[in-house]
């Protein structure tokens, strides 16, 4: 990653080394998704409410596109989205900022072909029904995979389905393949073959990530609340990364992940290993040129696919590292 400039200022006594601080209370709504990440334990424990001294309304969404719609309307102040819907939202110049990289996606998202579908290799996707939530990281990755394999997307029946609908369609046998995340990914893998993962695509030049975004008006009014939210998340990541095996040995941690993600307990270790959860020092570097460039690259790809009308000359206003410290 390319280092970005990071303002070395005093952040209301907040540091990521554990010093106490006081956040101005502000009740707000958070849009979360069914991803498997260590911070869901903090969510289940009420750590975000305690740190922000606020009442939080946690609302589950099935896709980043739905989260963006809720954030744009003002119904949600903080939301979890993938890099593709983030790029689309920034291109539309919605009043948002990326304040934390939630995960760099690896094996936690993948393209799976159904057993018996006749798909043994990528070229067999031609003419087949492939389900994916449109304008999601999975959608971006699917199109990137088809481009890598030199397959015309127009020759594949790409269907726009939300993850719950993908599970139903898969179980009925209505689709041949899907590019998705858990819990739908776990269902598909039970009777399917993984053709490629997002981690593998990242190495081929099409990386994807998930991020936490915030409405600019909320962040400007309650910066300490946003910093508190970031600190709780990064503390959770640090706890996991210091001793992954010990963390997983705590069945209470696993149970909370299962409850909030819908994934199976036996799949949790692999799903956590399939992503990278950036720590504080990584965040301070990433939330600048690297993320701005990644959003711009994604926007250009979406424009090529006709998903957005134009690409902005600069995406820096939609990324900020002011809410994290190293």
TrEMBL record:
PANTHER family: ALIPHATIC SULFONATES-BINDING PROTEIN-RELATED, TAURINE-BINDING PERIPLASMIC PROTEIN. One of its GO terms (biological process) is alkanesulfonate transmembrane transport. Belongs to the bacterial solute-binding protein SsuA/TauA family. It is found in: Periplasm. This is Taurine-binding periplasmic protein. Keywords: Signal. It comes from Zestomonas carbonaria. SUPFAM superfamilies: Periplasmic binding protein-like II. Residues 27-244 form the Solute-binding protein family 3/N-terminal domain. GO terms for cellular component: periplasmic space. Pfam families: NMT1. The lineage of its organism: Bacteria, Pseudomonadati, Pseudomonadota, Gammaproteobacteria, Pseudomonadales. InterPro entries: Peri-bd_TauA, Solute-binding_3/MltF_N, SsuA/THI5.
């Amino acid at each position: 990653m390319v280092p970005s400039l990071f303002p070395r200022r005093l952040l209301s006594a907040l540091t990521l080394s554990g010093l106490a601080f006081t956040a101005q209370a502000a009740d707000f709504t958070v849009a979360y998704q069914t991803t498997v990440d260590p911070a869901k334990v903090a969510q289940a424990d009420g750590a975000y409410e305690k740190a922000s001294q606020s009442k939080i309304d946690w609302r589950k969404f099935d896709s980043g596109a739905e989260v963006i719609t809720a954030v744009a309307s003002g119904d949600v102040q903080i939301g979890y989205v993938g890099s593709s819907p983030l790029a689309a939202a920034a291109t539309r110049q919605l009043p948002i900022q990326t304040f934390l990289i939630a995960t760099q996606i690896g094996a936690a998202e993948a393209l799976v072909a159904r057993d018996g579908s006749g798909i043994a290799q990528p070229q067999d996707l031609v003419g087949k029904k492939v389900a994916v939530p449109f304008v999601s990281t999975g959608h971006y990755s699917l199109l990137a995979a088809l481009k890598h394999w030199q397959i015309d997307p127009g020759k594949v029946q790409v269907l726009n389905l939300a993850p719950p609908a993908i599970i139903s369609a898969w179980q009925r046998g209505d689709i041949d393949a899907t590019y998705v995340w858990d819990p739908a990914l776990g269902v598909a893998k039970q009777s399917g073959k993984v053709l490629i993962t997002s981690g593998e695509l990242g190495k081929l030049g099409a990386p994807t990530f998930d991020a936490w975004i915030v409405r600019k008006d909320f962040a400007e009014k309650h910066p300490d609340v946003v910093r508190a939210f970031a600190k709780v998340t990064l503390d959770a990541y640090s706890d996991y990364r210091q001793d992954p095996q010990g963390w997983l040995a705590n069945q209470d941690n696993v149970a909370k992940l299962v409850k909030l993600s819908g994934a199976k307990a036996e799949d949790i270790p692999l799903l956590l290993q399939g992503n990278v959860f950036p720590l504080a020092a990584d965040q301070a570097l990433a939330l600048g040129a690297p993320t701005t460039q990644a959003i711009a690259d994604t926007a250009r790809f979406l424009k090529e696919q006709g998903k957005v009308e134009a690409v902005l000359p600069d995406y820096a206003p939609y990324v900020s590292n002011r809410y994290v410290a190293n």
